[in-house]
Amino acid sequence: MKGLFLAVASSGQKAPVLNPAAEVVFSLGPIPITNSMIATWVVAGLLFLFIRLGTRKLTLVPSGLQNLIEACVEGLEAMTKGLLEPKVANWAFPVVATFFIFILLCNMTDLLPGVGSIGWGVPDPSNPLPAALRETAVPLLRPPTSDANLTGGMALVFFLTNTWWTIRYQGPKGLLLHLFGPKGGLRGWIAIPLALIFVAVGFIEIISILIRPVALSVRLYGNIFAGEAVLDVMLGYLWGLPAVPFYFLEVLVAVAQAMVFSLLTIAFTATTCSHIEEAHPHK
């Protein structure tokens, strides 16, 4: 969408409204391929290339790309291990690090020129811009995290892996006790009349766990899509000048949302993979 900046600024026309649904570029048989999917593949390809170049010739004293990669990985590892038990942190770190790096790069595509303006299809004939400057009907690329399908997919991946970590950590019996057992270390006869309350709290906890992937996906999608839409609108006023501060704001939003998604995955994992009430560590 940002590739419209020069075109809109030269004419003073309002930018088009961003479509909430990712546009289908082409189909592979019954499978539609959207512009957000293509952008996701591009980001993944660049990420693999970046890591390959940075780790091709490893040295004891890192420099260049190797130094940047190691600093990023070590920082994310320290954050994860600082918030989770060591065993759980070893399980969660690869997922958390992947989420942060991938989401950050996907968010940053929102600011690249040509994203949303290069593509094919018949342009809107009512657009007063010259034909060469009109936005195509089907943009080739769309910021991946502005598509709810991607954010929902990542949230589902976390939900499944977190469920497996919880069962592996707690065990089936431990999981049931974690959900429905006495809270606050209550023991003896006092726990009997409170049993119904503990069961009700357990069902509330289950609902909370099921809502978590929805909260993760909607939070990320809503912030990135809203930022994209705001920039599109601002580019249509006063030769695009109001959009300038929003570009800097979007950089902060891109980093913040990647960090928030990663921290929430850690926080949600900590609530299910912990034994706060036990006096001894879990074996």
UniProtKB/TrEMBL annotation:
One of its GO terms (biological process) is proton motive force-driven plasma membrane ATP synthesis. GO terms for molecular function: proton-transporting ATP synthase activity, rotational mechanism. It is a multi-pass membrane protein. InterPro entries: ATP_syn_F0_a_bact/chloroplast, ATP_synth_F0_asu, ATP_synth_F0_asu_AS, F0_ATP_A_sf. CDD domains: ATP-synt_Fo_a_6 (cd00310). The keyword Transport applies. The chain crosses the membrane at residues 30-51, 88-105, 188-214, 220-239, 246-268. GO terms for cellular component: plasma membrane; proton-transporting ATP synthase complex. Its main location: membrane. It is found in: Cell membrane; Membrane. It comes from the Bacteria. Pfam families: ATP-synt_A. Keywords: ATP synthesis, Cell membrane, CF(0), Hydrogen ion transport, Ion transport, Membrane, Transmembrane, Transmembrane helix, Transport. NCBIfam families: ATP_synt_6_or_A. PANTHER family: ATP SYNTHASE SUBUNIT A, CHLOROPLASTIC (PTHR42823:SF3). Belongs to the ATPase A chain family. HAMAP family: ATP_synth_a_bact. Key component of the proton channel; it plays a direct role in the translocation of protons across the membrane. This is ATP synthase subunit a. It comes from Candidatus Methylacidithermus pantelleriae.
